[in-house]
Amino acid sequence: MSGRKWSIFSIINYTLLALFAFSTLYPFIYILAYSLSDGVAAMKYPIYFLPKGFTFENYIQIFQDTKFLEAYKITIFRTVIGTALHVFLSALFAYALTKKTLPGRTFFTFFIFIPTLFGGGMIPTFVLFRELGLINSFWVYVIPFLYNFFNIIVLRTFFQQLPNSLEESAKIDGCGDFKVFMKIILPLSTPVLATIGLFIGVFHWNDWFTGTYFVTNKDLLPVQTLLNDLLSQSIAQADAAKNASQTGTSIGLQSVAQTTPESLRMATLMVATLPILCVYPFMQKYFVKGVMIGSVKG
Hints:
Layout: H1 2-35, H2 39-44, H3 57-63, H4 66-97, H5 105-113, H6 122-131, H7 149-160, H8 164-172, H9 177-188, H10 190-206, H11 209-214, H12 223-247, H13 254-257, H14 261-293
């Protein structure tokens, strides 16, 4: 009887998990199929799993835009640099907070906690960035996001769980605090560091707000901020293609006719999302372990 009940439970459990996985995966399948479809054909016929009028024209249109390539570089650079600096400095700060002999330890903890409760607002933030020379600077994507209270607390909790005997043995051998941090603490903290890196890396990759409000130089815009501009351009191209097809005076616009604003938007979504989708599976093995070990225990 118990075996039969377990079998029924397994069937229901796996069925629900399969449905959940499908509901999570299907939007990406749909976006991929639409991005590889002829724009006009996609408007005429419904798309479920396979492209309609298979074409790479949508991606060709995107990568021919030099602004998009520059924006992609900005996004990659800010993600790599911002993530590396955030993880290293947050870990360094968290390690210092584990030392009970640190002067002003309680003050520094509340100092990084207060900004999580109060914010100056858009105008004071803009004025601050302007006085710091961050407006229209690449570093506006990096410096304001070097620290995060939640990430620091997670790292501090993880470091506190490491055996003190490791540090004591290293100091007996003549290692200073910084060398202990670099040679012992960081190598033992790979799960939580990978988890924090994933958190902040996804934020940097998806952030469009900073480029929209604090950057006016078109050469410094990230790819997410540029998506709306590309969509506006695609609408103009679609209108030009429609007018050309009605008059029949331009054959050169036939390739543009294969794209629509919707198909170009789907292609840009794939290009902007694919790198994170490729990185996440390699980080997933550290994700659960890092969150559980570095979690704040009540």
